[in-house]
Write a structure and sequence with these properties.
The complex is a heterodimer of chains A (245) and B (214). Chain A has nine helices and ten strands. By secondary structure, chain A is an alpha/beta fold. The longest helix of chain A has 15 residues. The chains are: A alpha/beta (245), B mainly alpha (214).
Chain lengths: 245, 214
Amino acid sequence: MNLLEVEGLRKIYPAFTLQDVSFVVPEGAIVGFIGRNGAGKSTTLKSILGLVHPDGGTVRWRGEDVKDCEKSFKENIGVVLGGIDFYPKKKLNTIASVTKMFYPNWDDAKYQHYCKVFALDGEKRVDQLSSGMKVKALIALALSHNASLLILDEPTSGLDPVSRDELTELFRAIVADGTRSILFSTHITSDLEKCASHITFIKDGAVIHSGTLDSFRSAFADRGSTLEDIIVSVERRELDESAII
Amino acid sequence: MKALLSKQLRLTCHPMTLVFLLAGVFLLIPSYPYTVAFFYVTLGIFFMFMNGREQRDADFSAVLPVRKCDTVKAACLFSTLVELCALAIAVPFAFLGARINPNGTNAAGLDANVALFAVGFLVFAAFNIVFLPSFYRTGYKVGVSFLKASLCVALVVVLDIALPHVPGLPWLDGTDTASCLRQLPLLGVCAAVYVIFTLLACRIAVRRYEKVDL
């Protein structure tokens, strides 16, 4: 079963257009949403979340249009927007105690459990946490309200290799029971080699491939053996003689 | 709405927003344009919105299971509660001020009386109708919105300073029981203006913010 289905998503900006983006997030999958900077990854995720208004297309949550089930959709997802520090001067426990008021499924025992597992000190302020710990804190909040889909926008950007490795291991553990899924946008493809089961590749606002990791490798076998090789090969633009003046 | 108001208080509200609730203490100052006290309350509300912007409150709220319009309504309602609390807290200071600075001794504007609170409602009405729709046009231009709103508030402050000097209106400046009773209908009218302007401001703010791409 697909948790999330995105079909024909369109968003037109003066200098950029998201063109009929379609892909699915099956239950138990880690979907890597890849593309270079400015390809449209964040715009797609923001359109899914309703942060921007798409000019067309539909987003379905468990088969139902999210416009008709916005509350239940948002109650069942956890969102990590990479590089954004919410309430940097507030303690984690304060943010958690406010956040839990919005979620009927909030489980305090789970929150305490994940704080312990991720070595998070709830009495610390957000700006006292490292970048990796901030991502873990947001994941702890998401898991504490039993989110079945985590939408992560560039969560590993700016993290050191060890923290990134820890997070990819964590992602595998989250989906291990097959009931939760992760939609994970990144341009650090080596992270996806370790954990993704599906890949959606977006270039210049259009999806050029969406499917399992194996199907992605097969489709671009002539472009390289690793995700990074494939993306560099597909995306690279040669500088012509007039580029440098 | 309760959860959103709690979020507003515990995560978004700036400490100075709460400190300026006590601006009513200004009513003890001899010869002072007392409506400036209410301006400080609007300054506290400005700090709250600025604090929210800097702490990425809009992004955090956007992924919570609430409607976008409810986040705007909660912020408007919280601002309204701040304004009404500030007025209520100012009441005992007005009684005290009227004793310290007897009838008609405030040369810089209205005395601490019922008419002052009527003008206080006008200060907040002017602030709300300009600030809230202006801010929610973009969701981030808080400084420009406050500047525009402050110019309107300044006009009301000028009204406060001018009123006692208008021929035929000395009863507006009185703190005695008879004058205060005579000022009561004005308080009712200004409170009604406040309610209408605030509801309108909230409605426009909701409509504008729905169109904003975060």
